[in-house]
Amino acid sequence: AREPFKGYWSLTGGGGAFEKEKNPRKAIKIEIKDDLGVEFKNKFYDFSYEEQPEPTIKLFFVGTLKGKPHINSKETISEIKWTSLDLALKEDLAFNDKKILESLMIN
User: Fold this and answer.
1) Hey, is 57 helix, strand or coil?
2) Tens-digit pLDDT profile for residues 52-61
């Protein structure tokens, strides 16, 4: 995660793919491929608005990965790990990722 959440766990994603693709469903596929080197079959899940560190609208997708994930983007990702929602909620999570994971538990 970037400052002010450096050292925290976060859901993968980002905005860089929007430079190549304006459609969010296609952009997240590019982002996942660029970051983790795998194909992502997605479905829109939810969105959130944050004011920190700057006004941001985040779109959340759920889906399946095709391939074995690995770090392609070493400047923004230091480690990847797959875990259950229960264990993820016990981690220090960046941004408002905990709120999104909690909503996944309910739904």
Assistant:
1) strand
2) 778 888 899 9
